[in-house]
Amino acid sequence: MPHGNISAVLSQQDVDDIKAAIKLIESKMPFLIALDVAEKTALFKQGPKSVDFVNDAMNATVNFPELLPPALDRVEFLKDGNLYKVLSDINQPLAALAQKVEDTYTAVGSEAMGAALQVYAYVQTAAPNVPGVKPLADKLQERFKKSKLGKATSQAA
Prior knowledge:
Blueprint: H1 12-28, H2 37-42, H3 48-63, H4 74-126, H5 134-141, H6 151-156
């Protein structure tokens, strides 16, 4: 793998500081929401052409307000458009960071599982000959037992 071995430690203080920084970010954006899949599916999505379209419509709202009916909440529309721009600016580095965390999490999990499999092999080999190791060998072996629910459950493990 191109990343090599990831060898790092986060102190509890670092973890606490990172969590506090995340909470600070969230506190600066109390309007954030969480959408379920159905809600996301029902919404308009903005690609590059749509972003330009919204920007042009915002410019029209500012430059030609007399064309728009009073029922259109121009102030709210401009707030939404401007917030979208700001969130886009924030979203890009957050998404990049989230991807790095997810990729590192996956790679480190893989490294840990590989080492755990080696430990498992050594423990299984030692169990018949080393007093007290059999309970540990049995416990580690639980990971590989088939579930009564079938293949779908074992694939999820």
